[in-house]
Structures are given as C-alpha cells and as structure tokens.
Amino acid sequence: MKPKETMKVLAASVIAVVVMVGIARFSYTPMIPEMVAALGLSKSVVGMLATVNYAGYLTGALLITRISDLGLKVRLYQLGLVVAVISTILMGYTTNVWLWFVLRFISGLSTSAGMLLGAGLLMSWLIKNNQKSELGVFFSGIGLGIVLTAVVAELIKEPFTWDQQWVIYGLVALVLLVPAWSWMPDYRACALPRTAGGGGGDERSRFIRILQLAYFCAGVGYVVTATFLVAIAESMPRLSGDGWLIWLIAGLAATPACWLWDVFSRRWGQWLALYLAYTLNAVSILMLIVNASMAGVMLSAVIYGASFIGIVSMMLAMVGRVFPENPSRPMSRLTFSYGLAQMLAPAVVGYLADVEGDYTSGLWLTLIVMALGVVMLHLARKAEQREQGSAALSPE
Predict the structure, then answer these.
(1) Could you give one GO CC term from the UniProt record (predicted)?
(2) How many Cα neighbours within 13 Å face the side chain of 170?
C-alpha cells in the first residue's frame, strides 16, 4: 500500500468525522447561547434538543448491531454524509421546536454512521492492508470538528443571525463532503474471511456487559460537558463572551490526544491508559465546580478534550480488535450504552439547571457517575482476566 494512498484514506475518514460528528453534532454547542439569546429557549428545551440528537445516535447504534452486509454499511455511511449536511442547513429554516427535534434526531443518525460505521469500515481497511489496527487518527476528527465549529462560531456570531449561522455550518459541511467522498476507498473490498471461532470473543460475555456499564458512565461524563460547556462558561461573569474560546481549547486538546493515547497504550497497556483517561475526565468536571476563573475553566477544557477522546478511541479500538470480522457490530453494542447516557444526561442536567438556576448539582451528579465508571472499568478488567483464564484451561 502506497503511503500517499494510505494518507488519502485516513484523510477521507477524518474529514467524514468532522462532517458527521464535528458539524452535525457539535455545531449545536456554540449555537446554544445564540438560540437562547435570540429565541429565549429554556434550559430544558436546550437539554431536550441534545437528548433527541443522542436518541438518534442511539437508534443508529442499535440498527448497526443488526447489519452484517458490508455493501449496506457502505451505502449507509455515504447516506450519513449527505444527511449531516441537509439536517444542519434545515435547522436555520424553522422555529418550530418539533421540527428541530426531528432534525436533531436525524442528525444523530448521521453521527452514528460517522462514528460506528466509519470506525468499523476503517478498522477493516487497516487490517486488510496490514496497517496498525488503531483508531487514534480517525477520532482526531472529533477534536478537529470541535475546533472548526468554535472558529466558525466566532467568525459568524456578529455579522449573521442564528438561522443564518446554521446554514453556514451546513455549507461548510457541504464543502468538506467533497474530499470525504472522493478519497473514500472501496470499502466493499475489505471484507475479512470468517473463521470457525467467529471472531475471538463472545459479544454477550460478562466482560462486555460490564464494559458497557463503564462506557455508559463515560458517556455521561462526555455529554454533559460537550452540551453545556459553552453555556457554563458564558454564565460566568468573567467569561461572558469567551465561551467559543473554551470550546476551541477543548477541541485543540482533543485533536492530538488520540494518537498520544495510542502511544501511551502501547507502552503502558490499554487498561492503565483507560484508568487514567477516566480519572482525568472526572478531574475536568470537578474543576468546573470548584474553580470559576478563566484559567481554571481553560484547564478543565484541556483535560476534558484530551480525556474524553482517549476513552472513545481506546474503547472502540479494543473491541474492534477482539471482533475483526465485523468490528462495527461490537462497537455498536458498546455505543448503545454510551448513546443511552447521552440521551438521558442532558435532559437531567438541563432540568436541574432550570430548577436551581445553575449547573452545580448536575456537575456533581456527573462527577459521581464518572467515579462509578472507574469502578466498572476495574470490574470489566477482572472479568476479562477470568474469562481468558477459563478459555486457557478449557479443552479445544
């Protein structure tokens, strides 16, 4: 495989993540203050719009667990690119909350295609072409998407109204769709031969079930900050008007963190890397509670960006390696828990913020869930060790 061709494939995958995750999902975060100021949206509605988006993501994850046909996966992946553009643009053409719910749900479906189908297809391509089966570069697209939406938000917030801003985000996605589509390899040629063992692991094992619980907790830690970080920053007198900068910092931290976690994982082991990533994510949440200074919130954004992306990248790559024949399926099973957390947590935190007037209680609840996630992660590791021991003792 020529290095130039490999670079084009990786670039296409990263750009697709920027479109289907960065813009289709994350453009909403810097848009929250704009829509609240222009339309007077309540915190509950803001949280519900995020919840509906993740409901679409969760639905997409469930559907993907039932898909084994590689050709269908490729077609749905391509459809996700188109849907990401259209659903973003149409957000600016209505003020009907129910239509917003529909559009954010559809956008969530496209995000699941970008994250899960995209990661699975790329993993298959990497294995087929004897490349390292790591997804750090792929998930750097999430950080790049955050950076892009933050920069665009700052450029367009003054000269354009909130509805025009949505259209601009969609047009940016349309431009990026061109290289993402044209550099896409023929993923249909990447099918791996099935083995008698079925792929090296049991998707319904105790290990996977506990790992799903751990990933649920990580989903809560991720989504609360992803949804409300800009709004939290803007609510602080000393940070009013600088919310976009905080979001940019999170994205800048996330972009290189993926491959740095890959390096750390190779040297020190994936479990130690995951323990550290979970702990750092919890620390970033704690800092939002105890330190309202500009420096404190910036540092929290750096730690958050670097940690959440590592959790996603390492978790999905780990299960993808266990099930190389059909990596999208176990990734989707794991993501079901992550998506469920993303559907529930914004609504809960938004409700608490409406009742109490700030995000403190919601952040404390999130911190507790992340601490529980570290415990679940440890139990998953122990379960894996027991299952590997039992497999080694059983006769072939």
Answers:
(1) plasma membrane
(2) 20
Query: CA 196 → CA 69, 141, 189, 226, 376, distances in Å?
Result: 19, 35, 21, 42, 31
Range of 171's domain? Answer: 3-184+201-393
Q: Is 396 helix (H, G, I), strand (E, B) or coil?
A: coil
Question: Is residue 190 a part of any domain in this protein?
Answer: no
Which amino acid, residue 270? Q
For the entire predicted model, the pTM comes to 0.80
Question: What is the per-residue pLDDT for 374?
Answer: 94
Question: Tokens standing for 300?
Answer: 């929290």
pLDDT attached to residue 15 = 96
Q: Sign of the C-alpha dihedral, residues 361, 367, 371, 372?
A: positive
Cβ–Cβ < 8 Å for 111, 293: no
Residue 238 CA to residue 294 CA, distance in Å, equals 7
Residues in the chain: 396
- Number of domains forming the structure of the chain: 1
Looking up residue 138, the CATH number of its domain turns out to be 1.20.1250.20
**Residue 194 is assigned to a structural domain of this protein:** no
- Cβ burial of 96 (10 Å; 0-12, 13-18, 19+) is exposed
Indicate whether 247 belongs to any domain: yes
Query: Would 260 be classed as within a structural domain?
Result: yes
CA–CA separation, 175 and 178 (whole Å): 6
Residue type, 14: V
